[in-house]
Design brief:
Blueprint lengths: L14 E7 L2 E6 L5 E3 L5 H5 L4 H11 L9 H7 L1 H10 L5 E5 L5 H8 L3 E6 L2 H9 L5 E3 L12 E7 L8 H11 E12 L4 H6 L13 E2 L2 H10 L4 E4 L8 H4 L11 H23 L5 E7 L4
Parallel strand pairs: 4-5, 4-7, 5-6, 7-8
Antiparallel strand pairs: 1-2, 2-3, 3-9, 8-11, 10-11
Amino acid sequence: MVEIPCCPACEGNDSRHRYTKFGLRLVQCRACGLVFANPRLSPEEIHQRYSPDYFWKEYLPSLGVHDGQYDLPYFDKRHGAMLALIKRHAPRRGRLLEVGAGGGFFLKSAERAGWEVAGVELSGEAVEFATNRLDLDVRLEQAEQMTFPPPLFDVVVMFDVVEHLLDPLVSLQRVRGALRPGGVLVISTPNFNALTRFALGADWAALSPAEHLWNFSAHSLDRMLRRAGFPSVTLERKYRGFGVFETMNPRYTHAPSALRNKAYNAFVCTIGRVVSRQVQRAGFADTLIAIANSPRR
């Protein structure tokens, strides 16, 4: 187990207990609101999660990929809304880096849309798949130790990655260094202040301290990005890629038979279409999406 001496978002050293789950404590920084596992598992225990079995039996099937068979036009459609969002903030297609590239399907869609792409990924199995099956430049590297010489990229993307990182501040500083002046970081992560968390409590599957080491709110994510050297941070609250169940998903739970889960599921299925856009605009969607710009010289 590893003790965390202070909050990486604001360096605060005063926290309060929020949840205990799977024998691990989640505490909340009193200064900025960041929720994190403390103490947390060792790096060796955390990295065991990203095994070949996980890649082939959990990760790929979750994307609809079975027996290594995939449909690139399907992924182009799946990633179309995100590529449109990126284009709004970076109209000129240049170089794009994905941190936590997984099997490389987003990168392949970006490449097919005209970007020059590269990635880093922790899983050797995923790197081999992205390199050999999709013909991509994806390197087996931790985010904290990226070797791309700065500054190279117009855009960096990190989708549901920052909550897994051992040292998110150092990783974001590396990302900032890899971006050209005025370059764009697009980052997504579970939203601690999601309506779903209020509805499901500790049963919400995003609260998983063995792998989700950090649980951000809009405020704490903004603090972390600014501390990492990004002077301009905005939240995307009208993302067209989120439907009802991406905005508030009652199925993402560790207790599907719990009464509160059944009640929330009924609520979402009944009026989710009516309220999902308002939930997103109010900042209570399941996922935060932030756009941060590196400094202009």
